[in-house]
Amino acid sequence: MSESTPKERDRTSAQNLGIDAEEIHGSLEARRALGPEAESDVVASFLERAAGAIDARVDQRIAENAPASNEGSTDSGGFWLAAVSIGMGIPVTGVATSFNDSGSVIVAAVAWGGIALVNVAYNFRRNR
Prior knowledge:
Elements: H1 6-17, H2 21-34, H3 39-65, H4 77-97, H5 103-127
Helix pairs in contact: 2-3, 4-5
Keywords: Membrane, Transmembrane, Transmembrane helix
Region (Disordered): 1-23
Organism: Streptomyces iconiensis
């Protein structure tokens, strides 16, 4: 393991932050040249540039890790599931209610409940 000089460590730290090491040294020289009364202005200026560099890196990482947008995607599976659900529900309701007993309405309600459950499960899985 090799030992690095303070200047090399400064360059590495500055590169990790996305700030040019020469900019850091320039800020330090400006602080020395302008004296203690300008120190807060020099530090504030440097911190603004550092914050901008950090913000740019954060934005870049967010953009790299953002999930792909679904805009413009054509998922016809949901349409066909809804169409088949209606297509199956109407005949099942007709058959179930063609009997004259009291259970026919319950059978139709259970059938529509099952159809609704399938549609909800599909949408839940798709939106996950």
